[in-house]
Design brief:
The chain has four helices and seven strands, in the order ααββαβββββα. The chain has a four-stranded antiparallel β-sheet, with no helix packed on it. A three-stranded mixed β-sheet has the order 6-1-7, with no helix packed on it. The longest helix has 12 residues. The chain folds into two domains: 86 residues, no CATH class; 52 residues, no CATH class. By secondary structure, the protein is α+β, with helices and mostly antiparallel strands. Helix content is 21%, strand content 22%.
Amino acid sequence: MAIQSLRQFCGNLFEGFVYSQELTLNEIKDFSDKSGYIFAEGEICIMTFAHCPVQVNYKCNCDTCKYKGDIFYTDKTNRKFALKRKKVYNCYWEMYNCLPLSGGKKLFKGGRYLIKPNDNDLQQVYTHYAAINASKTSDYQPKEYTTGHLSKKTN
């Protein structure tokens, strides 16, 4: 219903939508509109910060910024979550999951997938998803990854 309203409101400007990363594949299959994209491969942004961690930790401001790159949050299990600065008018920050998403073994033929592989895996990932849509098998599997919510069971 909301997607139909969005299509009507946007007219020719509407080009598509991406299902929420919080949905499981079973929940996505329940949608009456099957034209959305499933985010299936790449880094998962898990949080956006309204404050600047550099200013908070280094007691600086934008004019005296001490950002040098590669900032990580380490949790109590020693997993590292990358913090990336996005500079528009002011800075904002995004935190990314410690593992990239790879839903390849869980996906189905004919789905529409949004993939954002890292540069080192581009060819392997594209070949892998072409194989899925051709109902063929593929040996591709990243070294470390999460399947996120894609493989969770729902009631």
